[in-house]
Amino acid sequence: MSLGALALVLLGLTAITFAMTRMRANAFASGARPRDVHSRPAYHAVRAGLLALVPALFLLLVWLVIGDGIVADRTLDQLPQAAQPEAGIERQAFLTEMRSVARGDLPAAFNPAVNEAVPIYRETQASWTWLIGGLVVLLALIGGGYGWLKTAPDLRARTHVERFATIILALASLIAILTTFGIVLSLLYESLDFFSRVNPLEFIFGTHWSPQTAIRADQVGSSGAFGAVPLFWGTIFIGAIIAMAVAVPLGLMSAIFLTQYARPTARKILKPLLEILAGVPTVVYGYFAALTVAPAVRDAAIAIGIDSASSESALAAGVVMGIMIIPFVSSMADDALSSVPGAMRDGSLAMGATPSETIKKVLVPAALPGIVGGILLAVSRAIGETMIVVMAAGQAARLTINPLDSVTTVTAQIVQLLTGDQEFDSAKTLSAFALGLVLFVVTLLLNIYALAIVKRYREAYE
Amino acid sequence: MTSADVARTGTVDWRSAQMQARIRKRYAKERRFRFLGLGALVFAAGFLLFLLTTIVSDGIGGFQRAEVPLDIEYSATTLGLDPAQMSGDGADYAINRADFRSLVNAAAEAQLGTSEMISEGAWLDVRDRLRGDPSLLGSRERVWVVAAPEVDLLAKGQISFDVPAQRRAVSQEMINQYVVLNDRGDVQLSLNTGFLTKADSTSSELAGIWGALLGSLLTMAITLALSFPIGVMTAVYLEEYAPRNRFTDMIEVSINNLAAVPSIIFGLLGLSVFLNTFGMPRSAPVVGGVTLALMTLPVIVIASRVSLQSVPPSIRDAALGIGASRLQVILHHILPVALPGILTGTIIGLSRALGETAPLLLIGMRAFVSDVPGGVTDPATALPVQIFLWSDEVGRGFVEKTSAAIMVLLAVLLSMNGVAIYLRNKFERRW
After folding, report:
1. What is the DSSP string of A260-298?
2. What tens digit of pLDDT does each residue of A421-460 get?
3. The domain over range A225-461 is classified in CATH as 1.10.3720.10
4. ipTM
């Protein structure tokens, strides 16, 4: 019996319980006075249906998660001692091969022991599936039967169903907390492992980054160097300096034009246009930066006499990233400008100031905290941006203030370290998690600080 | 009139030439400022236009491919096929074992002079023709087969004859042969059906986008199935049930922070938790889907909460007043009214997830996958990852493939956002 069929049987049992309980509840509800019956028939039916479904479904899900492991263990136990694979990778390979043969993906395995194990595996799987299937059906019958028997006019079915729904909703909202904890714990766990091998001070203050660990211990630079300062600088240089030099003036000016000058019809056309810019996937920007902008930047640099310009430059990545951030800065500035009380603007205009003078001397200073908060949020988004820098900024970790040089960033290095061949235990791989932790903490602090500024400023005007 | 005069007399002669000049200057400044604002928007729009035209003009060729004709004789002896085998269960197996490659290469050498003019995978189409119609065995027919990538470039006019021969990436012999063929009318550009129906390949003329698109769709299905119900339930709990306490605050802070966490961090989470701790399969859409679901969740929760908040309290009060339970109020009255807003937020969240690349790279969805995935646990790649992979390829032919893949991705995103805007305009109610 397959799991799909089992799930169908379970749903069928639930439906039968639902229908039968509903009939029973209808029978006593139709003749009785309303005050004698606590809940409507539908509530009785839902309650009994849930009693049939939930425990059985829980068992089924648990089996879905751990079942394959148990079947594999039992199969290996039945094999003769000599044919049993050793623990670790060999066992993994053995099981993978066995499963794909059993599923029919492979006609036969390369390992003869696997071929012997396959019939045993099939048999074990079948018997366990029957056992679990029987238990599931039994649980559904017991739960459904209990619910059906208990159905009575004074049963508080509605209260029970409502309470169940509340619990489910509360459980769903726990996922967000679990995700946060999952992120923090997994980053911390792997980072601590990394810091037990590499001195944290070297990581934070070291200026030499070359994570390639050599294969032989006596090779030069076998330990790798994990000074992350060049990465931090590259990230700040591209994300917080070059990108912001593009995004802040352009975003601010477009927000000013949209909120203060544009007629409603023009605003209706121009604003979605900006939003399209925000909706283009970053990989598209990365491709464009690498293929069109970077060569153009290099050619321009060579044309004005800078011969050393590289084809992967911080400038190309930063400018494209800045353009990507424009809509974000613009919408934050838009919010900040429109929450300045109208009286301030009207007062300034009434005194004879032109609109631009009002904007420069009244609106922008009044909205400044909100704008600065928005810019900080934009910075946090820019330093977490990955694809543009991976594709256009290069992999050379160096400390430079020349925007035509290739630099690398934290995110680009994480991708570099974790793709391709990797053994999970090396300092090289683990360093990606340490970089991730730094990135997580910095963006988190930036966000908290920026949101606090924006909030305080909003309160000041309310 | 100087400022000292103003201070002394307390009046200003606004009509004096000096004041007129000052006002003219201020108005000029005003116009300049306004022009600057418009300029910023025009720049942004111009960049968008430039980006789109570059990609479309690069990518439009990716939907076409060059083909050359070959007279193929489906000879049973050359193929090593027995006509008796061609029916029944063994037919597929027999055809898979037959040597189509040398058959097609021999035909190309005889008719075109060299097998270099046709694609390495040209025999695949010939095989599929025979599989579709086994009665062809023993007969002769003229088949248009996929041309080599160099011919493809030549036929699309992407090789300039002005550059010196050694920088042309196509040998002179190839060009001569192409010219001969072209003069005979034996090169045609036709719709690249393989691009829309096949998966990745190492040769640009055979590479298709369908595998990656299907991988993306499977991933999105998982993402939607997880993040939509959980997101809506979380939003309902926070808006309708949750008491104001520290626990609720913690949930809210978590959601707001998750919305701002860089996407690559979710990739790290997926790698260390789903792959290394739970041992889920690498490169599988199910892992990608779960990872992206966690990333999309806060977007859906925030959009749903805004939508739930905009339902007027009078609806809630009226339903409660006539004896509906809390659950009935939510299911019968509040959710139906809030649903368009929730759906719009969901589509926006999903379209962000669809364009996301970095987390998928970390959980291994960058593997070279030449099969169309058959399920959520099969190795697969996703559309944006495919774009990234092709952009790294050295072959010239992949440039137009990458742009064509971007066009497909943008078309999917555009249609999703179109649906979102339609929903918003059709069902949005102002109270």
Report:
1. IIS-HHHHHHHHHHHHHHHHS-HHHHHHHIIIIIHHHHH
2. 656 667 788 889 999 999 999 999 999 899 888 888 777 7
3. yes
4. 0.88
